[in-house]
UniProtKB/TrEMBL annotation:
Belongs to the germin family. It comes from Trifolium pratense (Red clover). This is Putative polygalacturonase-like protein. Disulfide bonds join 533-550. It holds the Pfam family Glyco_hydro_28. The chain crosses the membrane at residues 21-38.
Amino acid sequence: MESEKPTFTTLILGSYKKPSFSILLLFFTFLAILSLQFSTRSLFPLSILISQQQQKSSLDPTTCSAFFHDVPPRKVIMSIVDFGGVGDGKTSNTQSFQRAIRYMQRFQNKGGSQLNIPAGTWLTGSFNLTSDFTLFLHHGAVLLGSQDPKEWPIIEPLPSYGRGRERLGGRHISLIHGNGVRNVVITGENGTVDGQGKMWWELWWNRTLEHTRGHLLELMNSENVLVSNLTFRNSPFWTIHPVYCSNVVIKGMTILAPLNAPNTDGIDPDSSTNVCIEDNYIESGDDLVAIKSGWDQYGITMAKPSTNIIVRRVSGTTPTCSGVGIGSEMSGGISNIIIENLHVWNSAAGVRIKSDNGRGGYIKNVSISNIRMERVKIPIRFSRGSNDHPDDGWDPKAVPRFEDILISNVPYLQHGIVNMSLVLPMGYSPFHVLSCRTMALHPGVDLAYLPRADRGWLKFLALVKTRSLAHIVASLRSFSSPAQADYFATNLRLEHVGLLLNLIDIMSCSLSHPAFSSIQICLADCDNIQDTCPTSPSEKHTTSINGLTCNNPADKSAHDFKTMELSKSGSRDKFGSSINIVTASKFPGLNTLGISIGRTDIEVDGIVNFHNHPRASEMIFVKEGVLEVGFLDTQNKLFQKALKEGDVFVIPKGLFHFFLNRGVEVTTVFSVFNSQNPGLGSPTATPSESVEKIKRKLISLSESEVDSVDDLSLIVSEIIYS
């Protein structure tokens, strides 16, 4: 009997029963799911991760309500007066507060307790909190920190720091302290906690501080905490410091310190989870809010990150620091951060993300949006910290990672002008393995205006660093007038394009030295034919070597071989640098020796653009500050290094190189050239033509062309050489 011919359906069903097909089906299904997860994460990195967390903890990123679980009315309510407190501003109430807390400890898990502080000035040293407890300051109540350091006892350093943050060994306890507590409320009717920090600041200024200063409020290993509706002022050190905590809400607070008070951060969540900071006003001598997670190898070992943190509707000023700082102590990792609706004025930065070599850790899944700024030096800044370490045990190979940072809708208001400058890290440790899978600048980031015309190249740096051609095209198309587009063209120079393409980790570009061509004078200095030949102060002497006349040997003196020329800086240029090169014409003793010397001073974020010395190699010595230096060899390979005080670096003869100051103070560099006339070369390509080509090409790209570009540097390089 002839068998039935199998149908298409039976063939398919039969294939499903084969083990090999089942394995392949499972494999490709897994790949599809994995691909979907990656693509979704790269588009919405923060929202996806937060939504995953919501499934576990029911957190709602649009409100703080889910971060703190409401507590029922306390069973026992008493006043500090009941424990012998006297609110005259002179009598010490340290014992009264400690008695009150000891008594109220018995109501943990038994309905809780509340300690009321009535109107008056209540002088006290440090005291500890307890669980299921409310500290309530009535209107007119002032809790005043003691001026006796003994009433701020020394406690063990935090394990994620390994020592006191300022000094070796232990640290002073905070004025209000809690360790291992839960269900705690610190609130009131705008009562005040005053740390009287001036005594502590003077110890710091005078360098007589023996132990790290205490905070105004520190909570350790605690959960479900609310701090609200109070004024905290004059903290000795960081004002509010939740560390190793979870579910903390800080809202409706006024935090005040003199603008020159050292390290008086407003709110510093540290290795903590589920923290909501909103509706606070802060004036500080340091960051208004600083997110941290441990210091170098100690933070790496503890591995306790700060995650799921919201900072919104915070306003204030800090002349030397930022509205929100992330790092530089971030060795345990920082992730899932929302920063939105800030108002910052008269400050050094709006938001600053900072780290250092040796920190390790990561900063990822950060959303920064709706930041209003007035008279702010650098709106969004990525930079190094103060390059400090707890001890010699830090690992130079521990480099931090930065991933998935979203910046959107950040107009910078200054005298009615919208402008934006974004200083991004360029290539060196700790940023040289920087991973920017989704470093996105949305079109809402207004890059049309800059505070100074010479910052125009920073705009292109911000765009290129995104590695997202779509965002660049969108930003260019978002220019509301031809004049704004022309601003882009006239202020972006080709040497800056070359610098950026070679310094911001886009090394696959095909730029080569023709773009930076200059006349190479391959002449060596002649050998000396006499010991010395100081330059003649006049031209009455006729012996001329290397173009300069020599003084009469009988008139030589030690004065010819000494100079004060390097004691002063040169004229500052518009890029924040000044160069003073001293040759034999200024320093007679150099004549015929085949050397010249120089001094370069670079302001913070200043740059000495690509240049070369056709006749000389250059050896540099960093006298003060930090310096990032790099040169391109004839194969277009970049050699780049970060230098600190005392470091020496050599730049081979004739190669193009740059200097950049990414530190926190002016950098001073001394140079020696192995030529009496080193010469100075700069890129010779016409900037305006190339920039205009870049602009025209990017704006004309179709959506499909945008999507097909894998490497922005290749298309920019193609435009330059087309």
